[in-house]
Amino acid sequence: MFREEAAKLTGAMVRVIGNFDIAEEVVQDSLLAALEKWPEQGIPDRPGAWLMTTARRRAIDLLRRDQRYAEKVALLERSALPADAPEVDDRLRLIFTCCHPALAQEAQVALTLRAVAGFTTREIAAAFLVSERTMAQRIVRAKRKIVEANIPYRMPQGAELVPRVDAVLAVLYLMFNEGYLSRGPDVAARRDLAQDALWLASLTARLLPDQPEVLGLVALMKLHLARARARFDAAGEMVLLPEQDRSLWDEAAIAEAVEVLRRAAGMNMPGPYQLQAAIAAVHSEARSWVATDWAQIVVLYDALLRLSDTPVVRLNRAVALSHVRGPQVALGEVNDLAISLGGYHLFHATRAELLEELGETALARESRLRALELCQNPAERSLLMRKLGS
Asked: Which of 116, 219, 248, 358 fits as disulfide partner to 277, beta carbons 3.0 to 4.6 Å?
């Protein structure tokens, strides 16, 4: 209930009041009131309407103390807000406001988690490995920037829409990746964070059903989470794809994700998220590691490079290429990325695997040690140490 209603309430309040701080305060107060009263009175038939009414009353009480908001009080007193849950467009406006390109990406993520997903400052700080104080300052600066830059609380229109959708998807994908495999040293993964990212992406897809890249990101997240149970063993050690027990994969979720991807493909507007999801689908539908269609994966990576030519995409393509043309060819392509990816642990880990296949054990060990120096994730570090000890 909290996850579903918080964004609706916050969006509606920001629309009318134009102030993130007051909107968040009245939403939190209304949710607290529900926690206090519903156990005694029972959950209302229309909980969204109850929360909206409570938030509206609290907003009027707060704004009456400040003459600057006399006009907003009048709007609220005339019941400008619906008694029931507000329009879904309010949530979408909120997401696009939080992901405005005038804000730094770290601020976009923090505001989205706070205002749309309902995370506390402490939860956001823990997810991104900074102090609560640092995260609170980051959120305050982002809200101030919205006011100072006069960022409008509205849906982008026309030519503005596609680049702004890209910003929203980039934030959601960053959030998902942090939950799926953490960059920090404390936890290997935060599945709750990854699932919240999928929830937000699914919400965006419901509100923008004609945007195939949104559907592509939803399919990509679903495919990864469908295989999540097999990624770690009982001791918490990471299990790589070739050794995973595929009976643990969620076949129903995989089928659902593939259907979402088909819907996106039917719009004939291919994009990077759709292609990444297609690559994940090839892996997910393979009955075994040996049965993986690597040639098809290379073709998909070639298409992805035409749309998003980044060093990481080239690194991943080289891994696929090693299964089609052999480790020597793949190593040549990986070595070409040394300057751009020298500080990326997976570059060195990939290079170590290819060198080992070619019998260059000393060089492989050297690359693996460098990967270990650069890696913070505890599960990945443990895997690298096991390989170094073998």
From this structure: 219
Please, what sign has the CA dihedral across residues 256, 262, 264, 270? positive
Confidence of residue 274 (pLDDT cuts 50, 70, 90): very high
Statement: residue 83 has pLDDT above 60: no
Closest CA to 320 of 330, 310, 307: 330
For residue 234, give every residue at least 6 positions away whose Cβ sits within 8 Å of its Cβ, in sequence order, or none. none
> Do the Cβ atoms of 200 and 111 come closer than 8 Å?
no
- Give the rounded distance of the alpha carbon of 99 from its chain centre: 12
In the prediction, which pLDDT does 155 show? 77
Dihedral of alpha carbons 348, 351, 356, 359, sign: negative
C-alpha 171/C-alpha 285 separation (Å) is 28
- Furthest C-alpha separation in the chain: 77
Residue 186 has pLDDT above 70, yes or no: no
- Check: CB of residue 202 under 8 Å from CB of residue 233: no
Q: Is the confidence at residue 298, as pLDDT, over 90?
A: yes
The pLDDT mean for the chain works out to: 86
Please state, in angstroms and rounded to a whole number, the distance separating the CA atoms of residues 319 and 351: 9
Q: What are the tens digits of pLDDT across the range 6-45?
A: 777 888 888 777 777 788 888 888 889 999 999 999 998 8
Cα separations (Å) of 81 from 2, 3, 74, 178?
19, 20, 12, 36
Total-model pTM: 0.76
Q: What pLDDT is attached to residue 85? A: 43
In DSSP terms, 232 is beta-bridged to: 238
Q: Match domain 302-390 to its CATH number in 1.10.3720.10, 3.90.1150.10, 1.25.40.10, 3.40.190.10.
A: 1.25.40.10
Specify the domain boundaries for CATH 1.25.40.10 within the chain. 302-390
